[in-house]
């Protein structure tokens, strides 16, 4: 019996070692909370642009096509590589699905029913991608979700600024890009919805942050000057997010979108805070 264990134990150790290495190969590196928030914001914006493409198609095919093209603008080679580390099939499927979606709008009269089905398919693929790419602990992490709220606010500001074009401060703002304007509205609406999922109850700052996010939405909806929207973020939204969720955002530089501040540095989001 002793001789039996003498030969079998080294084999078990080797098997465990090989299994461990295989898991490491499949999973790749562990992503930080900030990286996860950046990726989740990317997914949110893809969904937003696809849904806007579907919504605008019956009334304005040109704007719908612009939204469809925007679904791919944030998907970098690095994003694809990260997805491929977890699931090569999904990386290929996502690229093919988005490319096919954009090509659909190259037709002079895209079918509304076909576009609807493809938007649903995009949503399904993105849900699979998120499950493969983001660990459950971070996916349910309140701090990571709060970072996504911040990044969506940044996306909203970026698109709103682009929609206005070059304007003199004394002039009344004028929308020069309807697609960007719609993206700005949708991004801040999604930020509000996500915040409502994570906001603490019975907290004065929580109520104030909710009001500030709605003020930002009203500012954009009413086509007010960009500086007014920017001030709401700098003076209210960023400090409240910092204080409530400990995001370590740099005030005045926190809302660069996609996890970046205005200086191009990735915003921090801890992966060890409260989860829901």
How would you describe this structure to a colleague?
- The chain has eleven helices and no strands.
- Helix 8 (142-164) runs antiparallel to helix 9 and helix 10 runs antiparallel to helix 11 (226-245).
- The protein folds into two domains: 33-137; 141-245.
- It is globular.
- The protein is mainly α.
- The chain starts with a helix and ends in a 31-residue tail after the last helix.
- Mean pLDDT is 83; it is low at 3-29 and 256-268.
Query: How many domains make up the 3D coordinates?
Result: 2
The mean pLDDT is: 83
Tell me about the biggest sheet? none
- Indicate the low-confidence ranges by residue numbers: 3-29, 256-268
Helix content: over 70%
Summarize the structure in short:
The chain is mostly helical.
Explain the layout of strands and helices.
Elements: H1 2-27, H2 33-56, H3 61-70, H4 77-86, H5 88-104, H6 112-133, H7 136-139, H8 142-164, H9 178-198, H10 204-221, H11 226-245
Which key features would you list for this structure?
single chain, 276 residues, mainly alpha, 2 domains, 0% strand, disordered N terminus
């Amino acid at each position: 019996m002793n001789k039996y264990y003498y030969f079998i134990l080294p084999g078990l150790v080797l098997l465990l070692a090989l299994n461990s290495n295989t898991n490491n190969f499949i999973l790749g590196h562990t992503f930080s909370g900030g990286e996860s928030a950046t990726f989740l914001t990317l997914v949110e914006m893809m969904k937003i642009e696809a849904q806007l493409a579907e919504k605008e198609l019956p009334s304005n095919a040109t704007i719908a096509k612009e939204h469809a093209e925007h679904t791919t603008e944030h998907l970098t080679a690095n994003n694809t590589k990260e997805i491929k580390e977890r699931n090569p099939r999904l990386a290929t499927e996502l690229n093919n699905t988005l490319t096919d979606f954009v090509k659909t709008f190259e037709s002079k009269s895209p079918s509304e029913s076909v576009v609807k089905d493809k938007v649903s398919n995009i949503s399904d693929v993105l849900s699979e991608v998120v499950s493969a790419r983001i660990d459950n602990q971070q996916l349910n992490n309140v701090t990571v979700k709060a970072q996504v709220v911040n990044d969506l606010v940044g996306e909203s500001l970026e698109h709103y600024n682009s929609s206005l074009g070059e304007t003199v401060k004394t002039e009344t703002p004028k929308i020069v890009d309807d697609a960007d304007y719609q993206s700005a509205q949708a991004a801040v609406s999604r930020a509000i919805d996500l915040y409502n999922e994570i906001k603490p109850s019975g907290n004065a700052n929580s109520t104030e942050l909710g009001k500030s996010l709605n003020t930002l939405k009203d500012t954009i909806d009413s086509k007010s000057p960009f500086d007014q929207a920017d001030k709401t973020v700098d003076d209210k939204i960023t400090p409240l997010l910092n204080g409530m969720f400990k995001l370590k955002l740099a005030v005045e530089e926190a809302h660069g979108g996609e996890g970046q501040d205005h200086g191009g540095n990735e915003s921090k989001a801890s992966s060890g805070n409260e989860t829901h």
